[in-house]
Amino acid sequence: MSRFALLTAAALITAAGGASASSFVATTDTVGKALANSSEWTTDLTFDDDDKVLLAARDDAATFIASEGDIRGARLEAALQQIRRQAPQLQADDRQLAEAILAR
């Protein structure tokens, strides 16, 4: 499994951590769909430049999470845009993606 797919799964699994039983089912369905779809497009990606953008965004992601979304750094914005451009089918919000960037 590619790093980006793992990043995606981590973001969605993190979101399920505090979910109730009914929303957990919906979240796990989303994770399953994201993983199934990710195999179709990840083979076309190169991760060298992607990794650099995501790694550079770690400090901004930590600040974003710690400030509860009030502080949004330029590197985090670039990483979020890149992730959404490469995986438009993702249903993760900014916090979930920031958590996944930190978990990387």
- Strand percentage lies at under 5%
Low-confidence stretches: 18-28, 38-47
Q: What is the approximate shape?
A: globular
Number of strands: 0
Number of helices: 6
Element pattern in H and E? HHHHHH
Termini separation: 14 Å
Rg estimate, integer Å: 13 Å
Structural class call reads mainly alpha
- Domain count: the total is 1
Keywords: Signal
Pfam family, one: DUF2388
InterPro entries: CHP02448
Signal peptide: 1-21
What does this structure look like?
The chain starts with a helix and ends with a helix. The protein has helices at 3-16, 21-41, 47-56, 58-66, 74-86, 94-103. α3 (47-56) runs antiparallel to α5 (74-86) and α4 (58-66) packs across α6. It has 104 residues and is mainly alpha-helical. The protein is 74% helix and 0% strand.
